Amino acid sequence: MSEQLHEPHTGEPGHADDHGHGGEHGAHHGSPFIQHHYDDAQHQFDSGKLGIWLFLAQEVLFFSALFVAYTLYRHHHPEIYSYAHKYLDVKYGAINTAVLIFSSLTAAWAVRCAQLGQRRGLILCIVVTIACACTFLGIKYIEYSHKVHEHILFGRYFDPCVSSGGREMLNRNNNCPGTKSTVVWDSGAGTATAGCFNDLDQDPHTEGVQADCAVKEYGLTETPKRVTQPKVDPDGKPVVGADGKPVTEEVEKPEITEHFARDITEKCIEEPLPGEEAHEPARTSKFPCWRPAFQPAVCKKGVGILVEYGDTEEREHTRIKAECKPAPKPTDAGDLLADRGRPLQLGVAQIQPRHQLTVHEQHELEAAGPPPEHTSMFFTIYFAMTGLHGIHVLFGVGVFTWLLIRALKGQFTPDYFGPIDYAALYWHIVDLIWIFLFPLLYLIH
Amino acid sequence: MSESPAAELHQDEDHHHGLSHVAPIKVLVATGGSLLVLTLVTVLATKVDFGANINLAVAMAIAVFKATLVILFFMHLRYDRLFHSVVFVAAILAAALFIGFTLMDSNQYQQTNIWNPDSPPPAPIGPRPTSG
Asked: For the complex shown, is ipTM > 0.85?
């Protein structure tokens, strides 16, 4: 092996000796990795190469099933594709395409280095290939985590918190992170204090402020109770009896107990909206919420946050599940009682809108219309295709890491570089599939 | 050493050498560069409105061309044994058949009917199947 590296080789290394099947291992002049059951290095290399090409053919067929699903669904529902692809960021897709193409180049270059016995070049090319693969996976992670975060998922998990244009909106289950387009309604004063505020002086249209929203309602019960307490005279002095001891008396004093403490929004859903007689219990919308309009809720008690979603014909209401911090619990229940009918204190100035939609944005969203039915299918296909491809990339990272270790040990020589060639071929097919996935998923007109 | 008739035996580097064809650096870099340029072209082509079908056709044409470059130069299929091309092209043809045949009769199926007791679908024509 070392002779191959340091001596200028003459002729064809694979044919260095004709050892035959029974030949001893030590009889090789070439790489020790040439197995006995092959005639020579060429035989071993060609066998492996045929094997990898058959594997690649299988890969094409493997992925073709997903391409069939894609094609068929796009054929039947082109509107889903032209709507849903806007959820994908072309920028990330294009960067990933470039990264994969570059890694394909370095993989091909690695083969060349191995063929020519350039060990340092080989190691460098493998390292760059691994780095590119990891970059690809990193960008994929950014994309995936954004989709998980905003509920842009497959099947019934598709419940986006953003519109396809990237505008924020409320979703069906109101489980978006942060608070969006929330309206705090002061039923006592009869006015809406729009948005969640850090403090009431802050501009509600401030964008991008992050915080939590806290609304809590306490249910209080007054129980009439007789208690024994020291008797006081009208001046407030304890009345002392004839025996010199304080006189006690039984008085009626209501005991205030807290029988529930819950998120105020729980309450609001049962209350009628302003200008409406009553409304039905919240139903699950057919559409993921696309209409960002918000409607303040009037709560008989406390502060309500209610957000409307659904299409215009069938107005459906639901509450926003704000990520609330509980309001500081008043120590004196009497204060709470006095506060009934007035807005409760919102938790310690922790209320910030994630993003308050401007009127323009609302119009934009409404013009875009609701997502077509079965939009989730696009993401089912998206995650199946990019996920399977991603697994291939991950596997490629493993293979190239193994090759890197072997290359560092100097195991590849001009008469034994098959594994590098096969891995590079595999890597090219991974690149090839992405070349099709990129325009099919990201670049829909 | 005879799998590629086009290859010339050069003693130092490039072309045929050792066990198989060695791709010249120029070819590799040119292929990689063209692929990157074509990626840019396909992104820009989406911004032009040719109509949905033509846009798709353009994007696919560019993708096929890019794939061909990868196969021919990065995967060395141009210099490789003919049999490897046969294997790979056969797989692609099979995939094309798979997609093509599925599309061919995809309009022949009815929409899935979801049972609605208020408006049941019309009874099928023909005798009612007898039980047992």
From this structure: no
